[in-house]
């Protein structure tokens, strides 16, 4: 990643506060802590995501890349609620990163996460009798 | 006093909070994946049922969770298959939960480690509530929807949705099976360890986690190693996520990421034959 002068003509984005993320293998998995949904970003998508640097004070530095594919990707993430457009003047950065990507950044998949795991049941039928068996086989 | 408490708990305008209910002298303690939980009740018959339900998981450790159970008579019959997640009946303030399931209500204060359940003389509300609370109470741990098997030295989590073969596999492995439904995976100083939980056919056990199998039935035994990113996506659906509180969810996700990166994951297609043990307990390079 290199920096060039910002033209101030592109939307700036920062990560939403309600996300956690982690690079796992070749993907970056982003978890929406409010919507309870996980998103898998492909490797270029992960590179864009990681270009958004968290500042020490907890505020996230915005990026405003000029590449159309990256702008479109960030707009998609904004639509999903994972990033948000940063208000002008909320950060000190005046540079625009130019990302050297190996392909188009994409959201490769998304899945809901659940408190009980998929397809599980919490209850033991038995009409008042103690049951030690798995009711679901 | 007991009847008044019952009536108030279920028919009043709100469920009693844990600190408002007097402690009872009759209690039992059980270990849930390293979390000692004490259950008390006026109803000795219910406590006896609970003792049978969690037989083998008794503990003398000082409880980190205390659960008061008020047996409420005359409740309507349970639905045939009362499945699903518990529903909130009041807003959460970050440490307090008020939830209801079919025929019961629970009020839990995670800050003090106290809970009150009002429900029928049955153990299923405890099953349901503990499944809800365990992911919130464990730190550096994940509660996974998995069978847990061990060769005596190491453990393998055998995960999958209902019908994938957890119970079938556990039955085939006999004494080498620790549980067939839920287990706790913990990251500690000594590495990653798995512990059985008392769901459904279970006995206490713990061992370093050697790997995770994602199960499916098939005509032959076939094991396929998954790349970390593919494994992570499949494993997401096999975790009991603490979705009630964002902070707990973020902690669990950090643990999840570490496990997905450090623990080898295979897809294990297996036929219901006794020789499946060779595939289950095979080394990383097999």
What does this 3D model show about the protein?
The complex is a heterodimer of chains A (137) and B (286). By secondary structure, chain A is an alpha+beta fold. Chain A has one domain (2-112). Chain A has 2 helices and 8 strands, in the order βββββααβββ. Chain A has helices at 43-50, 68-80; strands at 2-5, 13-15, 19-24, 27-32, 37-41, 83-85, 95-98, 107-112. A 4-stranded antiparallel β-sheet of chain A has the order 3-4-5-8. Chain A is globular. Mean pLDDT of chain A is 72; it is low at 1-8, 91-96 and 117-137. The termini of chain B are far apart. In chain B, the strands form 2 sheets. Chain B has a 7-stranded mixed β-sheet with strand order 1-2-3-7-6-5-4. In chain B, strands 8-9-13-12-11 form a 5-stranded mixed barrel. Chain B contains 7 helices and 15 strands. Chain B is of the alpha+beta class. In chain B, a hairpin with a 2-residue loop joins strand 5 and strand 6 (104-109). Chain B folds into 2 domains: 2-137, no CATH class; 141-280, Phosphoenolpyruvate Carboxykinase, domain 3, CATH 3.90.228.20. Mean pLDDT of chain B is 87; it is low at 1-14 and 20-24. At the A-B interface, strand 3 and strand 4 of A face helix 2, helix 3, helix 5 and helix 6 of B.
Biggest beta sheet summary of chain A = 4 strands, antiparallel
Judged by helices, strands and strand pairing, the structural class of chain A is alpha+beta
Q: Please, how many domains of chain B?
A: 2
How would the global form of chain B be characterised? globular
Major interchain interface with per-chain residue totals? A-B, 40 and 60 residues
How many domains would you count in the coordinates of chain A? 1
Radius of gyration of chain B: 20 Å
What shape does the CA trace of chain A take? globular
Determine the number of helices of chain A (DSSP H or I, runs of at least 4 residues): 2
Number of strands of chain B: 15
Provide the spatial order of strands within the biggest beta sheet of chain B.
1-2-3-7-6-5-4
Radius of gyration of chain A equals 20 Å
Unreliable spans of chain A = 1-8, 91-96, 117-137
């Amino acid at each position: 990643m290199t920096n060039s002068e910002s033209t101030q003509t592109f939307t700036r984005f920062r990560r939403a506060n309600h996300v956690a993320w982690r690079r796992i293998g070749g993907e970056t998995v982003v978890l929406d802590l409010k919507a309870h949904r996980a998103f898998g970003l492909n490797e270029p998508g992960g590179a864009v995501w990681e270009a958004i640097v968290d500042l020490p004070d907890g505020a996230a530095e915005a990026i405003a890349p000029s590449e159309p594919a990256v702008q479109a990707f960030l707009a998609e993430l904004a639509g999903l609620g994972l990033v948000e457009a940063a208000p002008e003047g909320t950060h000190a950065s005046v540079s625009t990163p130019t990302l050297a990507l190996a392909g188009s950044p994409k959201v490769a998949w998304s899945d809901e996460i659940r408190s009980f795991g998929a397809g599980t049941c919490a209850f033991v039928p038995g009409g008042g009798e103690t049951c030690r068996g798995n009711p679901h086989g | 006093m007991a009847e008044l408490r019952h009536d108030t708990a279920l028919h009043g305008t709100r469920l009693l909070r844990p600190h408002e209910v007097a402690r009872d002298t009759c209690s039992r303690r059980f270990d849930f994946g390293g979390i000692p939980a004490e259950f008390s009740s006026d109803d000795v018959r219910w406590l006896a049922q609970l003792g049978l339900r969690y037989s083998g998981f008794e503990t003398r450790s000082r409880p980190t969770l205390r659960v008061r159970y008020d047996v409420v008579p005359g409740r309507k019959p349970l639905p045939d298959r009362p499945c699903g997640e518990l529903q909130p009946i009041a807003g959460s303030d970050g440490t307090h939960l008020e939830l209801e399931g079919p025929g019961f209500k629970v009020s839990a204060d995670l800050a003090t480690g106290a809970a009150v359940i009002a429900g029928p003389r049955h153990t299923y509300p405890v099953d349901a509530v503990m499944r809800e609370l365990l992911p919130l109470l464990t730190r550096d741990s994940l509660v996974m929807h998995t069978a847990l098997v061990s060769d005596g030295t190491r453990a393998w989590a055998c995960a999958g949705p209902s019908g994938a073969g957890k119970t079938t596999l556990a039955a085939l492995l006999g004494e080498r099976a620790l549980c067939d439904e839920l287990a706790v995976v913990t990251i500690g100083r000594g590495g990653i360890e798995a512990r059985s939980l008392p769901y459904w056919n279970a006995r206490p056990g713990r061992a370093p986690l050697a790997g995770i199998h994602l199960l499916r039935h098939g005509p032959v035994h076939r094991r396929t190693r998954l790349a970390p990113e593919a494994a992570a996506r499949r494993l997401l659906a096999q975790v009991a996520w603490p979705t009630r509180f964002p902070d707990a969810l973020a902690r669990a996700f950090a643990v999840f990421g570490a496990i997905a990166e450090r623990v080898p994951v295979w897809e294990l297609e297996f036929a219901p034959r006794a020789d499946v043990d060779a595939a289950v307990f095979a080394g990383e390079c097999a």
